[in-house]
Amino acid sequence: MAKILVTGGAGYIGSHTRYFLERQGHSVIVLDNLSRGYSESVPPAILRQLDLNETKKVTELLLAEQIEAVIHFAAYISVGESTTHPELYFTNNVSSSLSLFNAMLAAGVNKLVFSSTAAAYGIPARDPITEDQPCAPINPYGESKVMVEKMLEWLDKYRNFRGIRLRYFNACGAEPQAGLGERHDPETHLIPLILKAVQTGKPVTLFGDDYPTPDGTCIRDYIHVSDLAEAHIFAVEHLLNGGPSDVFNVGTGTGQSVKQVLAAVERVTGKPAPHTIGPRREGDPPSLVADSTKLQTKLGWKPKRAEIDRIVADAWAFAERKNEVA
Fold this sequence. Notes:
- The protein is α/β, with parallel strands linked by helices.
- The protein has 2 domains: 3-172 and 223-250, Rossmann fold; 176-220 and 253-289 and 305-325, Alpha-Beta Complex (UDP-galactose 4-epimerase, domain 1).
- The chain is 41% helix and 17% strand.
- The chain is built from 10 helices and 14 strands.
- The strands form 4 sheets. Strands 3-2-1-4-5-6-11 form a 7-stranded parallel beta sheet, sandwiched between helices. Strands 12-9-14 form a 3-stranded mixed beta sheet.
- Helix 4 runs parallel beside helix 5 (140-159) and helix 6 (190-200) crosses helix 10.
- The relative contact order is 0.14.
């Protein structure tokens, strides 16, 4: 078992990964500046409120805690925001990552799992998407992730800095028993938005119903956040066991359309999901589905919670719990 630093560990995917790392027996320290994370998602004893751009303090933390590997989530994630304020994304996602890498090099820590994205591919030439397809991002968010991926490739070549890049698809679901789920502000993800419409009666807008798909709505690969968290554990243990740098897609390999997700919400909740149809969003590909064969073959990971009704049920349990607390 290892001592692992999780950056952005007070956020959605980071908090779930911290939870599963501890269940696996690893010791975890969470670094988060809490600009978009929630302190209550992390046990206070392991939370270090710190900004990644404070390179010297990050170096001191790595040394003091005897960190052996890092899982790096800390980033801004809104595609829309990245198009209105691209400079925020290059400062926060790229510059902060470089500061972290400098701190790791200074502290002698050379193992990192990086939270990348399917947005790296842009509009893919074929679907399902394999890792050998070219990176051609169509927004600053995707570009910021690709820039960090390129840094990791060069650091691997010249500095013996080993990194696993996980390009994942549509994270969703929750671990309601652990009090963990989606809490983005503002919320931009489909499932919590539909669930909120069920709770409030205020219609959610679905963007576009004239795509070249069977029902006219976009198709995405929805992966349960707990399956995604476990993929990070497979990746970090691969590095800790001496494995080389690599890049992997993380998804179920099955696409669900927006209307199929809407139907799943109505099945799970037993209530209608009020909605309206809006225009397409610029740059939305008709279909994004992962081919995760490489990850399953090389690291032995497999999704355990891939059914859309299971994903929605866990998200609904968390939404109802959050509503009760509010």
